[in-house]
Design a protein that fits this description.
Elements lengths: L1 E3 H16 L4 E5 L11 E3 L2 H13 L4 E5 H18 L4 E3 L2 H6 L3 H17 L19 H21 L3 H15 L8 H5 L15 H22 L4 H10 L3 E10 L2 E11 L8 E12 L2 E8 L9 H8 L4 E5 L7 E12 L5 E7 L6 H6 L9 H12 L4 E8 L6 E11 L4 E5 L5 E2 L18 E4 L2 E4 H12 L49
Antiparallel strand pairs: 1-5, 2-3, 2-4, 6-7, 7-8, 8-9, 10-11, 11-12, 13-14, 14-15, 15-16, 17-18
Helix pairs in contact: 1-3, 3-9, 6-7, 9-10
C-alpha cells in the first residue's frame, strides 16, 4: 500500500485532527494499492469498528483496522525518511508492521512498565509543574527525576487515548497511586490527553524546516553511534523544533546493578543563518553500590568518540583501547584510563593515555593466563574485542589438580590493566585473584636484580619462582613472567580459588593496600 507524496501532508494532518477529537482507530480497505485521505475511516469505539467491518464483509470487502496513534507515528516517521532521503513519488506503508503494533501483548508490556514506574515513585513528595527540561537552574539529579516524571505523564496520557478500556485502566492506576496526594489534580488532564505528545509533522517546503529534518536524522545517527540507542529521539526532536541555541536531552541506563544518569548537550551552529545543530558532549553520573561519580565526555567528529559503554567502563576504573587523532600528526592507538586523583577545574578526572610505545601488549598479557579461549580462535577474537572496550569479561581458566590428567575449568572475570602492563582477574564473587606479573622490559638496561625471597622457609631466586609457576601451569600457551608485587606463586598442592574473606567482597580492591596488587592462590 502506498501514499503519494502529494497526499502525505493531508493524511498526516487528518490523522492529527482525528486524534485531537479522541478518535482511537483508523480503518482502510486492504485491497487498495494507493490511499488518500478519502480512503481513511476513523472511530472512537471498538463497537463502531466491528459494525464497519461487518458491513464491508457483507459486501465482499476486507478492511484492516489499526490503532490511530500507532499509525500516525509510523506514517510520520515514513515522512521523515521520505523528505530526508529525497523520495519524490510515494512512500510504502507496511501493513504487517503496523498491524503488529496492535497486539495485546505489546499493550500489556506497556502497562507493566507504567505500573513499575508508578510504584517506584514516592508520590507524597511529588508535585508536577510544567517547566523546561533544560532549565539550567535545576541540579543535575533533579533534571533526571523531572525527565522521568514527564515521560511517565506523557505515556499515561497517550495510553489513555488508545481505547475506552485503556482510559479506564489509566484512571484506575492514577487514582490508586495519586488519591490524597498533590498529583490527584492531574488525573483528569491525563485522561483528557493534555500531556500526550502528538508531534507536529515536519512537512513543509520551507527551507529551514527541511533542514531540520536532515539535522534530526544526522543527530539521531550520532546519538545511536555513541551508544545511547533510540530512546531519546522524542526529546531530541522536540529540542530541534523549539529552535533554541542550545538544548539538553536527559535519560538513564542500567549496567547490571549500576545506574547511569546521562545528559546529552546539543548546540546550533555559530554560522549566521545556519539551522544545523551539533552533538557536542555528554555528562554521566554513575550510581554504583556505595559510591557516586560524575564525568564529562566530549564528542569527537572524527568518529573516535567514547561510547556510553566505554564511558561506564572508564568510570568503573577500567581501561579502554581507542584510535586517536592529535591536533598535529598521524593517528595512533592508545589505552585510556581515568586518573581519579587528578581533576580539572570542572571536577572531571584526568584522562591518561598509554600508547604502543608504553609497552603493553594485550595479546601477550592474555597469553600469560591459562585460558580455554586461547585454544578457540573465534572466542579469543571476541574476548579481545570486549577487553578493548574496557569490559570485565567472563573467561574460562584451565588448571590440573594434583594427580589429575584432565584440566579443571573455572569461570573467572578478567580486564586489561595497561598501566601495570598486565591483566586483572577476579572470581565470580569479585575477589581479586593472582595473575602472572608483567614481563620485564630490558630495553633501557639490564633486567631487574635477581633477588632472593623466602618461600616455605627456603631462599628462592626470582628466576626459579617463575620456573615453578610455568611448571605448575603445564600449558604451552602461557608465558608466565615474574610473580607480581611479591605475591606467592601457584603451587601444585594449592587450590585455584582463595578462601572467602568477608571484608573483601567488592569487585575492585581499595587503593589502601598498595603492596598487594593481587591475591595469591591459597
Amino acid at each position: 500500500m502506498y501514499i503519494q507524496i502529494s497526499e502525505l501532508a493531508a493524511v498526516v494532518r487528518e490523522m492529527e485532527d482525528q486524534l485531537q477529537d479522541l478518535k482511537v482507530f483508523v480503518s482502510v480497505d486492504k485491497s487498495l494499492q494507493m490511499i488518500s485521505v478519502r480512503d481513511l475511516y476513523f472511530f472512537e469505539t471498538e463497537d463502531k469498528v466491528n459494525a464497519f467491518e461487518e458491513f464491508n464483509e457483507s459486501r465482499g470487502k476486507e478492511v484492516i483496522t489499526l490503532l490511530l496513534l500507532h499509525a500516525y507515528g509510523y506514517i510520520e516517521a515514513k515522512a521523515f525518511e521520505a523528505f530526508s532521503g529525497g523520495i519524490r513519488n510515494a512512500i510504502y506503508v507496511d501493513l504487517k508492521s503496523l498491524a503488529a503494533q496492535n497486539e495485546i501483548e505489546e499493550r500489556l508490556d506497556i502497562r507493566t512498565e507504567l505500573e513499575s514506574e508508578m510504584e517506584a515513585m514516592k508520590w507524597s513528595d511529588i508535585k508536577y509543574e510544567y517547566r523546561r527540561v533544560d532549565d539550567k537552574k535545576l541540579p543535575f539529579d533533579e533534571l533526571i527525576s523531572f525527565n522521568r516524571l514527564e515521560f511517565l505523564m506523557e505515556t499515561l496520557s497517550a495510553h489513555a487515548q488508545l481505547s475506552i478500556e485503556n482510559r479506564q485502566w489509566v484512571e484506575d492506576i492514577t487514582r490508586r497511586y495519586w488519591t490524597g496526594y498533590p498529583m490527584e489534580k492531574e488525573i483528569q488532564p491525563i485522561l483528557d490527553g493534555r500531556y500526550a505528545q502528538i508531534n507536529q509533522p515536519i512537512i513543509s517546503n520551507h527551507k529551514n524546516e527541511s533542514m531540520n529534518v536532515e539535522t534530526f536524522e544526522y543527530l539521531k545517527e550520532r546519538v545511536r553511534y555513541t551508544g545511547f540507542g533510540e530512546g531519546l529521539n522524542n526529546q531530541l526532536e522536540r529540542g530541534l523544533k523549539e529552535g533554541l541555541p542550545e538544548f539538553t536531552v536527559y535519560g538513564s541506563h542500567e549496567f547490571g546493578k549500576d545506574r547511569v544518569d546521562m545528559a546529552l548537550h546539543f548546540s546550533r551552529s555559530s554560522r549566521e543563518g545556519s539551522e544545523k545543530y551539533f552533538f557536542n558532549r555528554y555528562e554521566i553520573a554513575l550510581k554504583a553500590e556505595g559510591s557516586e561519580s560524575r564525568q564529562m565526555f566530549f564528542i569527537n567528529n572524527k568518529g573516535q568518540s567514547i561510547t556510553l559503554r566505554e564511558a561506564y567502563n572508564l568510570m568503573k576504573g577500567r581501561s579502554v583501547f581507542k584510535e586517536l587523532t592529535p591536533k598535529e600528526g598521524a593517528r595512533y592507538n592508545a589505552w585510556l584510563k581515568l586518573d581519579f586523583q587528578k581533576r580539572d577545574e570542572h571536577g572531571n578526572a584526568k584522562l591518561q593515555t598509554f600508547n604502543e610505545n608504553y609497552g603493553f601488549d594485550l595479546k601477550e598479557a592474555v597469553g600469560r593466563l591459562p585460558l580455554k579461549e586461547l585454544k578457540e580462535p573465534d572466542k579469543l577474537a571476541k574476548l579481545f574485542e570486549q577487553l578493548q572496550k574496557g569490559d570485565l569479561v567472563e573467561a574460562t581458566l584451565l588448571r590440573k589438580e594434583n594427580g589429575e590428567t584432565t584440566e579443571r575449568e573455572v569461570t573467572v572475570l578478567i580486564t586489561a590493566d595497561p598501566k601495570y602492563k598486565s591483566m586483572q582477574m577476579f572470581d565470580m564473587e569479585g575477589r581479586k585473584l593472582h595473575v602472572p606479573g608483567p614481563k620485564h622490559d630490558t630495553r633501557y638496561g639490564q633486567a631487574p636484580v635477581d633477588e632472593k625471597r623466602i618461600e616455605n622457609g627456603t631462599a628462592v631466586r626470582v628466576g626459579e619462582v617463575a620456573k615453578q609457576v610455568a611448571d605448575n601451569l603445564q600449558t604451552s600457551s602461557v608465558k608466565p613472567g615474574e610473580a607480581e608485587g611479591g605475591s606467592k606463586p601457584i603451587h601444585k598442592n594449592q587450590n585455584l580459588l582463595p578462601k572467602r574473606v568477608n571484608n573483601q567482597s567488592n569487585l575492585l580492591q581499595k587503593k589502601k593496600q598498595k603492596n598487594k596488587k593481587g591475591r595469591s592462590i591459597s
